[in-house]
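Data card: per-record layout.
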Amino acid sequence: MTSKNMTAAATDAEQVPAPVDLPEAGEEVNIDATENYFNRELSQLQFNYRVLKQALDTTHPLINRLIFCCIFSSNMDEFFEIRVAGLREQLKYGRETVGVDGMQPDQVLAEISRIAHEYIAEQYDILNNVLIPELEKENIHFVRRRDWTEAQADWVRSYFDEEVLPVVSPIGLDPSHPFPRLVNKSLNFIVELDGKDAFGRETGMAIVPAPRSLPRLVRLPDEICEGGENLVFLSSMIHAHADKLFPGMEVKGCYQFRLTRNADLELEDDLEDLASALRGELLSRRFGDAVRLEVADNCPEELMNFLLREFGLTERDLYKVHGPVNLTRLMAVGGLVDRPDLTYSHFSPSIPRQIRSKDSMFDAIRKRPLLLLHPYENFSPVVDLLRQAAKDPHVLAIRQTLYRSGADSEIVEALADAARRGKEVTAVIELRARFSEEENLELASRLQEAGVIVVYGVVGYKTHAKMILIVRREEGRLRRYVHLGTGNYHAGNARLYTDYSFMTCDESIGDDVNKLFQQLTGMGKALKIKKLFHAPFTLHQSLISLIEREAGYGEKGRIIFKFNALTEAQVIKALYRASQAGVKIDLIIRGICCLRPGVPGLSENIRVRSIIGRFLEHTRVYYFGNRGRPQVYCSSADAMERNLLNRVETAFPVEDPALIARLREDLDTYLADNCQSWVLQPDGTYLQNHPAEGEEPVASQLVLLDRLTSSSG
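The structure for this 713-residue chain is written out next.
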């Protein structure tokens, strides 16, 4: 790839880990040397930055560009809540661990602070100087206080009095009112006051938490505006009328801030009641240790320092922002304005002919296995399979894993319906799916009430595998129908994430899945599995063995992997050895990559690219050329330690030649992308591909959308 058809995404050396001196060609390379690995956290920051850059990409509709800016905020929130919090915990308790990259936790935290400050400053620059002006040109206005007309000011006053004032609880700071314990990521205001209150107290300062029940953006009525779409921030309303919260006192200043806390949950492995313990931990999540403070940049230094002291943070943890402290809430713009011309055009996911012409999903699957790629192809066949199983008198049992599904989903309704009809229904629910724990507790209760047997998996190992097993009596014998997927059983995700769904009645796969459910719901030794790989038992070593086999083919070897993250050191080393043997390796990795490509004598045969676009790339595919006899596995697992060693995961073979060819065609489409792809360089930067002069543009997601809709429609 030449620089001619690339644009630098992060060429400034200040934005990335410091480059290292690469070995000369022919120089012996130490495969274990720390400089051959990127830091996990810093690589994740790079992914977040690529998401932010979508806000500048004019091939996306304008409102969706704003949404990318918001997604960056959401990603950064989770990054601080989990990753930064974890590093701080290591330092707090003296449990520092060093990865293959060799960086100490305090070094990583210093780099994170430096890079994150730059990225967040750029985010607000994009918002204020690019997105808001472009929205203004489209007659979508964020109306500032200074620009309110008399009619608008009157309306805001009434809204504040009727909707805001009754639910706000200002907290004066004095000996009997110590600094309040603020909820994680909540919008708050620190207020400077002058004068005495009704009891003669001179506090000088107060905290105003903004109720989470209130919208952060409010649409002004059309009759008090001069056309267009006009929005007002809740923060502007509180700023304008803060004096009403402190009658008889002078408000000298009112400044918004937001605190991010440690939101990771720690549960012991020897719990007697996981559900009860989790309910207790969820209450504490909102008040974990502070990790970041965001403050409006017009806040006086003394107030910022006061907040830092209260939260036990340092200057490194302070982010001064020029605008709302929680940009994630700007996602509401799409629902508040009626401008479909500024969002992605609607499309209808297709239904393959194989099942479109069949009344029975069972008949279609018996004829040949089925592979769907969501969201281009409809998720409804998965729901239909369960619905038909619930009603089919020949179906005896249904078993399913649930990681994220939503308590009110059609999948859950189908399982409940099957149980009410007297079928044996078992749901393995992962209560610890991050940020879905509360929803999954509700889901478990609902299914239990319907008569479903609910199991919480294996303590210490999250159940991340995506499996459905349906046992049906046919012609005097039992046949197993199986669904295996790379993504969650969540209809909403299936419209936004790319994921494969595989349905088959292959006897060996059915037997394997049955054994996996036995391991999850019962006790005993690991059972021998024929076709599937499964973590934490065989998946890790099987992947390494297949990589090593491909390395044995030398220059005739071929590996294409597509997943969300690559961090596991032994897999990286196996890929390095395969590259040294001459194997051509393409890695399509959306997010974190700790492998350093393009190092002479080590990884010059490895290319790494990230696809960022309308849909979140979520498919996991492991393709091995196997000297012209391709072996392909789809999986619920990324190449990370947690997936391969500490979770229940599956990788399932796709053996039908037509489906293998289809998967290879999909992978080649991603590899041909010269619009939405970013290529990882040896120095850690990512460069965005652009068509060279005279080259046909290829945006992989658009190509797949067109191909699958056309071929299936």
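Known properties of this structure: The chain has three domains: 3-11+533-712, 163-342, 361-521. The chain is about 35% helix and 20% strand.

See the next section for split statistics.
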